Structures are given as structure tokens and as C-alpha cells.
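Following up on my earlier thread - several people asked me to post the actual chain instead of describing it. Fair enough. Here it is, all 255 residues.
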Amino acid sequence: MITVLWLGLLLAQPAAPAPAAPAPPPVGPAQPAPAAPPPPAAASGPAEPAPPEPGAPAEPAPAPQSPAPPSSAPAAPPAKPAVPTTAPTQDLAPAPHQACVLGGLVYRLGTLPPRTGFSLAGSFQSRYATLAPGVELGWEFDFAYASFSQNVEANLVTSQSQSTFGLLQTVALRAGAFRAWLGVGAGLMIATQDKAPFARAVAGADLPFDQQTGIQVRVGYGYVLTSATVQSGDRTYDRTGNPLDIHAGLFYRFR
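Reply from S.P.:
Thanks for posting it. Predicted structure:
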């Protein structure tokens, strides 16, 4: 009877749960294999570092170095280029062509009075070559008209006015815009009743206001090659005479 009751109690109790299986250990990162010992360093120099093992964490790159702080002392200013004490001079030749208008006096040598007269003249000059700095060659066309107002007997002197036309070769010395020149050539003289060829020489100087304008002064002499003569007493005179002239006027240079 007692045995039957004990078996009934055992069957009436609930079955106890089975014990849980132990959890597997957590899987961690693979441990790197121990690195092989580096080879012995060569005697000739320091040993090179061994290459990193695969899977090993890369070494961090070195941090960039910050620039050195600027010096507290002020930097020296840059040296300035040396300035020449005198500006270089430039030899600028003026324009090659020049026109001139002049007025002056003419004195006739070797003839009877009137010997002195008033004259108007003009010229055109042109430079065609420069031999050296300041030495120039050119040519000139020269014109002048002179009037002699004193009345004399017609059978003695008939040339009361005369005009001259000349073509000259010139050589000039120039310093800046100043110019001194000499011309030699020939031309034709036309008097009141006479025409005669003549040789002519002229010396002049150009005194500039600027590179284009200024004053010209000149002295010229003409020698008549053929001329009619006139007799006065026991002396013989040329009807035209050899003119010696002095002029001054304004010039203008252009290209």
C-alpha cells in the first residue's frame, strides 16, 4: 500500500528541465604568429627593417612637422637698383629737310655805285648722308634777290637789281640741334640787262629754338665768271660786280 502511494506521488510531480549546454567560448581575433627573428646585421652597414607581416596593423604615418615660427627680427629690405647719376644722352638727328626765309644786305665788289643793296633770300637744304656722328652731307638750293636803289647814269651801271640762283654741295657739323655748315656750288645771276654764270660759297650756322625751328645766319660770296664791263675814266668795272652778302632769318625742319 505504501509502495503504491509513493509511486503515485512520483508520477504526479512535473519532469525537471534538462540542464542547458555550456555556451562556446567567444571567438576573438586571430593572434598573429610570432615573427621570425631578423637576420643578423651585416658588418658593412645598418640592417634594413624587416617587411611587415601580412595581417599586422600598419604603423601610423609620422605627423607632419609644423613650420618653424618666424623670426622676430624684421627682414632686411631688398636692395634698390643703382640709379645712374646722369641720364644717358641720345644723339637724335633732326629732320633731314630744312626750309629757310632770310633778309639781309648785299655789297657788290668790283663795280661802280650803287654797291650796297637790300636783299631777300630763301633756301632749301636736304641731308642725304651721315659720314660719322655729327658729320653730315647734303645739298642746298639757294635763291636771293637784291635791289640797289641809288640812281646812276645808265651808260655806266645798268644793273640796278639782280637775282641769283645757286645749287650747292654742303657739309655740316652738328651738335644736338645746333648745326654749322659750309656750301660750295655754282649758279646763274640775272641782272637788269645781264645774265652770267657764277661760282658761290656760303658759310652758315643754325641756332635752334627746338628740334624744328630756329634762326639761321649766313655769309655768302659769288664770283661772276663772265660779265659785261663798263669804262669809267681810266678804269674798267664789271656791270654786275661780285656780290658779298650777309643774311639772317628763320628756318623750319621737316621730314
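The longest helix spans residues 2-12. That should answer part of your original question.
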